[in-house]
Structures are given as structure tokens and as C-alpha cells.
């Protein structure tokens, strides 16, 4: 089978996680890595020994690739994607969040409607083995009514030039971090959002940091309630000063017959230690009692990143879709809708008011 030639734009923490996972793909070669920061290019060199290392997008595209991974800071995604597709209509896997503001939602939708492009948004939680096992058991809950997602974890890590310390670069915590969870809500509830209410603040983290004299403005905890157009509801509980907990994410789906839980350990446990495996629990309403299943992640996938194997399985699906000429597993509309819910949550927590969503037109409606 012909090896597909892959390029990477952005060789920071996540870009290098992509390189580690790409090295595990039998039928893909990374032929070019582009980053504007020489130190980051240096760190990537050992992970892609056969690649060229360049510092501009034009040099990257000149190498000749079959597909591109974009893993640059959030606020760059929309312009880079559109600029690149204007030059070459390549399959692209672009990191989340796809955009960071309402203007770019409109801009990207309009541009993508005007062209045929294969763009896959990196909502990789969909491909995490624990959540795949969870989704395989969803039928047990009966008619789905509620989904709650708790993420209690460590603070935001340091990024190149600290772009994640400011809402204007990241989109805000509910966009940057939580778009994953709003995407899962849409996927598992099979519905689009109609209303969001949120409460959030920056209470503990980054308060004493200064960048060019400016204090970070990113929130570190909050609650978000989302009403969906099929009568179901979702709830997100986020805390980013809780690194001591055993499970980083806890996902609970409740239907009229049972509750289904998925508990996912954080990235710092040792590989497949039985004490720290993810678990799936089905608790029927009948007296039968709960049934627990542990979920192992293959070692190679677990070790190639800090996302419980999700990056590996996302890559498998991405390259398989390209080879089979299938549609992207996570579409531009999926990526934009996850951001829209995040922006609604940001707006609601700022105003203290519920924010309605016009999902058909990808718009927020105040009041
Ligand atoms: N899917 C996930 O679970 C997940 C996890 C972490 C990060 N991410 C996403 O991945 C993206 C990158 O995050 P990160 O943690 O790697 O950040 P990072 O700061 O570590 O890396 C970003 C890289 O982009 C480079 N860069 C900046 N401007 C550039 C330009 N014009 N051209 C080329 N390179 C440029 C920087 O030098 C840096 O190396 C973000 O969108 C982030 O939200 C996704």
C-alpha cells in the first residue's frame, strides 16, 4: 500500500503528540513539519526523522503532501485553514477549537459552503477507548434524558507564548477546553442545543502571573447547563484546581431504565495499572445492582500521548476515511457547534442571563 505523505503545522505539545501517534501508523510518513519557533522544531526532530523542518506555510506546501495536521494556537485556526485550502485542497485534521469567536463561525461556514473540502475537527474524545466502551453500552439506559460531565483536573499547562492565558487567544475556557464536552453532549444526546446557562470565574489559578504586565483572564471553574431540542439536558461541572482526584472525567448518562457512568483517569497514572483503569458502570433501576467493566487502553496508544489513547484511535479513523474516500468523522459543523455552545456559556456566565442558541443558523440569541 502506498504510504500517505503527512505534513504538520504547529509542533508544540499537541503537535508532538500527533507525531508520536503518526509514527505508529504503518501507512503514513511525516514528510514535513512546520513551526515558526526554532526551539519547537528542534524538539520535534527526533519524532519525525525523515521529515523536512520548515518555518513557513509556503515551504510546507511546497514539499508535497497528501494530508495536513494543524496544531497551532486556537486563534490562528480559522485563517490558517482558509489560507491553506485556498492554495491547495488538501484533507486536513485541525485541532479543536475550530474557531474562537462568533465572527469566525460565520466566516468559516460561508467559506466551507462554497467549497468541497475534507476537514476533520480534532474532537478526539469521541475516539477515547473508555468513551467508545461507554457509547457501546448506551442502549442499556433506555430513553436518554440527562447527561452530566464532570472534569476536575490540573490547571492549564504553560504554552508557547502563553496564548492559553487569555480569552482573546483561546476563546475562553468553555471554548478552549470544554468544546470537547459540548461535542460529546451533542453526540450522545443526538440533539442540538437551544439554551445555555452558566456560572464561572477565575478563583484560584494564574492570579499572580503577568505577561507583558497583564494578568491572565481565563476561568478555572464553573457549571454549565445546556437544554437540547429533543427535551434532554446536559450539565458540565469544571474545576481546574483539583489535580488530586483519581478520575479526571466522569460522564453519566441517565435514561428511564438505567444510569451509565464512565470514569476516566488523568494522564499521569502508570500504564494500565489495574488500580487506575477507566471504568464503565451500568446501574439499572431494577434491584439487579450495578455492573462494572474496566477498560484497558493498548500500551502503544496510551504511551503516545496524554489523552488515554484518543489521539491514536482518532488517527486510525482519519487515515482510514481518507483512504476509503469517506466523509470526515467530525465535521466542520460539529466543530463549530461545539464552539458555539462554549461561546454561549462564556456569554451567559458574563451576563448572568441564559443565552438561547439558534442552531440552524449557528447564532446566539440573547435573553
Ligand atoms: N485534542 C486535544 O485534546 C488537545 C489537547 C491539547 C491541545 N490541543 C489543541 O492543539 C493546539 C495546539 O496546542 P498546544 O498545546 O500544542 O500549544 P503549544 O503552544 O504547545 O503549540 C503551538 C505551536 O504552534 C506554533 N505556532 C504558532 N504560530 C505559528 C505559525 N504561524 N506557524 C507555525 N507554527 C506556529 C508554536 O510555535 C507552537 O510550537 C491548540 O489548538 C489546542 O487547543 C488539543
Task: Provide structural commentary.
This protein is an alpha/beta fold and 367 residues long. It has two domains: 4-125, NAD(P)-binding Rossmann-like Domain (Rossmann fold), CATH 3.40.50; 129-306 and 336-361, Dihydrodipicolinate Reductase, domain 2 (2-Layer Sandwich), CATH 3.30.360. The chain is built from twelve helices and 16 strands. The strands form two sheets. Strands 14-13-12-11-7-10-9-8-15-16 form a ten-stranded mixed β-sheet. Helix 2 links the parallel strand 2 and strand 3. The protein is globular. The chain starts with a strand and ends with a strand. The mean pLDDT is 96. Nicotinamide-adenine-dinucleotide binds next to helix 1.
| End-to-end separation | 56 Å
Physical arrangement of strands within the biggest beta sheet: 14-13-12-11-7-10-9-8-15-16
Largest sheet: 10 strands, mixed
Low-confidence stretches: none
State the oligomer.
single chain
Q: Would you count the extended β strands for me?
A: 16
CATH top level class name of the largest domain:
Alpha Beta
Q: Give the C-alpha Rg.
A: 20 Å
- Report strand %: 25-35%
> Count of DSSP helices?
12
CATH architecture of the largest domain: 2-Layer Sandwich
Amino acid at each position: 500500500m502506498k504510504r500517505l505523505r503527512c505534513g504538520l503545522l504547529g509542533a508544540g505539545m499537541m503537535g508532538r503528540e500527533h507525531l508520536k501517534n503518526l509514527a505508529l501508523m504503518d501507512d503514513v510518513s511525516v514528510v514535513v513539519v512546520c513551526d515558526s519557533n526554532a526551539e519547537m522544531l528542534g524538539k520535534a526532530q527526533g519524532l519525525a526523522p525523515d521529515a523536512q523542518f520548515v518555518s513557513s506555510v509556503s515551504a510546507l506546501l511546497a514539499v508535497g503532501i497528501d494530508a495536513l495536521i494543524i496544531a497551532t494556537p486556537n486563534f490562528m485556526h480559522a485563517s490558517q485553514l482558509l489560507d491553506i485550502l485556498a492554495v491547495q485542497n488538501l484533507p486536513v485534521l485541525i485541532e479543536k477549537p475550530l474557531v474562537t469567536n462568533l465572527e469566525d463561525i460565520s466566516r468559516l461556514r460561508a467559506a466551507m459552503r462554497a467549497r468541497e473540502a475534507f476537514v476533520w475537527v480534532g474532537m478526539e474524545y469521541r475516539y477515547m477507548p473508555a468513551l467508545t466502551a461507554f457509547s457501546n453500552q448506551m442502549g442499556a439506559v433506555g430513553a436518554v434524558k440527562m447527561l452530566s460531565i464532570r472534569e476536575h483536573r490540573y490547571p492549564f499547562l504553560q504554552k508557547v507564548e502563553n496564548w492559553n492565558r487569555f480569552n482573546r487567544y483561546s476563546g475562553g475556557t468553555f471554548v478552549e477546553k470544554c468544546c470537547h464536552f459540548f461535542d460529546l453532549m451533542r453526540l450522545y444526546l443526538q440533539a442540538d442545543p437551544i439554551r445555555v446557562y452558566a456560572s464561572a470565574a477565575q478563583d484560584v489559578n494564574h492570579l499572580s502571573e503577568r505577561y507583558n504586565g497583564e494578568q491572565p483572564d481565563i476561568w478555572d471553574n464553573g457549571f454549565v447547563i445546556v437544554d437540547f431540542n429533543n427535551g434532554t439536558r446536559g450539565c458540565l461541572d469544571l474545576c481546574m484546581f483539583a489535580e488530586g482526584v483519581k478520575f479526571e472525567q466522569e460522564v453519566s448518562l441517565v435514561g428511564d431504565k438505567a444510569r451509565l457512568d464512565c470514569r476516566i483517569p488523568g494522564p499521569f497514572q502508570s500504564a494500565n495499572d489495574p488500580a487506575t483503569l477507566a471504568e464503565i458502570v451500568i446501574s439499572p433501576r431494577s434491584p439487579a445492582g450495578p455492573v462494572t467493566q474496566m477498560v484497558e487502553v493498548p500500551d502503544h496508544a496510551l504511551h503516545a500521548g496524554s489523552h488515554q489513547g484518543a489521539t491514536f484511535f482518532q488517527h486510525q479513523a482519519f487515515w482510514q476515511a481518507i483512504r476509503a474516500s469517506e466523509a470526515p468523522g467530525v465535521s466542520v459543523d460539529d466543530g463549530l457547534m461545539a464552539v458555539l455552545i462554549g461561546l454561549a456559556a462564556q456569554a451567559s456566565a458574563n451576563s448572568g442571563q441564559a443565552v438561547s442558541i439558534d442552531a440552524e443558523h449557528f447564532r446566539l440569541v440573547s435573553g
